[in-house]
Specification:
By secondary structure, the chain is mainly alpha-helical. It contains 15 helices and nine strands. Helix content is 50%, strand content 7%.
Length: 375
């Protein structure tokens, strides 16, 4: 991260860091086709992309000190893998003790070898995760009382990413919870309501409910929210039981401060609210093609409850599966009861990013292998 605003992007090779050369478009080593196209593009055609990246890089950030203190407390103890804080190597599983008896069978020897390999693999993974977390937390501690900036560049699709690889706002739940905007804004008339809706979104408990239902749920659990903010490690620990625990905790603390302010509407908040598209690629296709059915399934048309395109596709696939099963297709008969939203989701999402038929087949195979009862 930079301690001053990044250089504005002025060409495919000029922008972002002051000293380190940075490419406008990240690509694999040795690939030249995209770079050649970029270099031959008239400069005026790139102004929109360059300005967008400059604008993203100009957003100033700071570290959320209260969350960082709690993470460091867990990290210096024995970690907590459930909350995304890796445990030290001392917590790794121990390989089996003792020597094998002289007459041990080949099967017993193979079992011991397998167990040794498993313990070694787990220990190496734990070391890697611990080192990564240590590096990220060291950066956060170093930047604790400073304002910093994250220069951005993009990939060949035009998706934008922060250049610093370890500490940024598109990381894991823990990494996101450690960051907040350096520049605050008053919450305004409905800001507190949106904070509550955001918290409920982070819990993952009301995915299919309307915004009003989510708001009502937040008011119902307000005691748990305030308890989480005041006594995160000693209270009822409601925040630990949700989908995105650290972001939820940071949001609980922000809601507590806003609720207790003399005027919540005037309370200046620095809290970032992340928002996600519903299968973003399909949203673009539906908008470009004026496709009203597609638009409804990816939430581009007004609706009281959120629509889910993946469930819709799974239902459509199930219709075809039943027809094939009646005709005696063996694969269709074996797949009965296994066509779920989770199985189709990755392939539906990547179809619009150019996944091949072969790649899509592998994705579905991987999802089916993850199911414990799939033959």
């Amino acid at each position: 991260p930079m301690l001053c605003p990044p250089l504005p992007w002025t060409s495919p090779h000029t922008g972002a860091f002051l000293l380190s050369p940075t490419k406008l478009m990240r690509s694999l080593e040795g690939t030249v086709q995209h770079q050649r196209l970029l270099d031959s593009c008239p400069p005026a055609d790139l102004h929109g992309a360059l300005d967008a990246l400059t604008q993203l890089g100009n957003c100033a950030w700071r570290v959320n000190g209260r969350v960082l203190d709690l993470v460091l407390e867990l990290f210096t103890a024995k970690g907590c893998p459930h909350l995304g804080v890796p445990a030290p190597a001392s917590e790794a599983p121990r390989p089996p003790d003792g020597r094998l008896p002289p007459g041990a069978s080949p099967a017993q020897k193979a079992e011991v070898r397998r167990e040794l390999a498993r313990c070694l693999k787990v220990a190496r993974e734990m070391h890697s995760l611990r080192s990564d977390a240590l590096y990220r937390l060291s950066l956060a501690q170093h930047l604790r009382h400073r304002v910093f900036w994250l220069p951005h560049n993009m990939d060949f699709r035009g998706r934008t990413y922060p250049c610093p690889p370890h500490f940024h706002h598109l990381g894991s739940d823990l990494a996101r919870a450690l960051l907040e905007f350096a520049q605050g804004r008053p919450l305004g008339a409905r800001g507190l309501d949106w904070l509550k809706v955001h918290l409920v979104n982070l819990t993952g408990l009301k995915k299919r409910e309307s915004l009003q239902a989510r708001l009502a749920f937040a008011d119902e659990v307000m005691k748990d929210i305030l308890d989480s903010a005041d006594r995160p490690m000693t209270g009822r620990k409601w925040w630990m039981q949700v989908d995105e625990p650290w972001q939820a905790l940071a949001c609980c603390m922000e809601i507590a401060r806003a609720v207790r302010a003399p005027d919540p509407a005037a309370y200046v908040s620095h809290f970032p609210v992340h928002q996600d598209g519903s299968c973003n690629g399909l949203q673009h296709y539906a908008a470009l093609g004026r496709d009203s059915v597609g638009a409804a399934s990816v939430n581009l048309l007004p609706s009281d409850v959120p629509q889910d395109v993946y469930s819709g596709v799974a239902a459509q696939v199930e219709v075809f599966r039943r027809q094939d099963a009646k005709r005696g297709v063996g694969v269709a008969q074996v797949l009965e009861g296994f066509i779920s939203r989770k199985v189709v989701k990755q392939t539906v999402m990547t179809v619009v990013y150019g996944v091949t038929r072969y790649g899509g087949r592998l994705q579905i195979e991987r999802r089916l292998r993850e199911l414990s009862d799939f033959p």
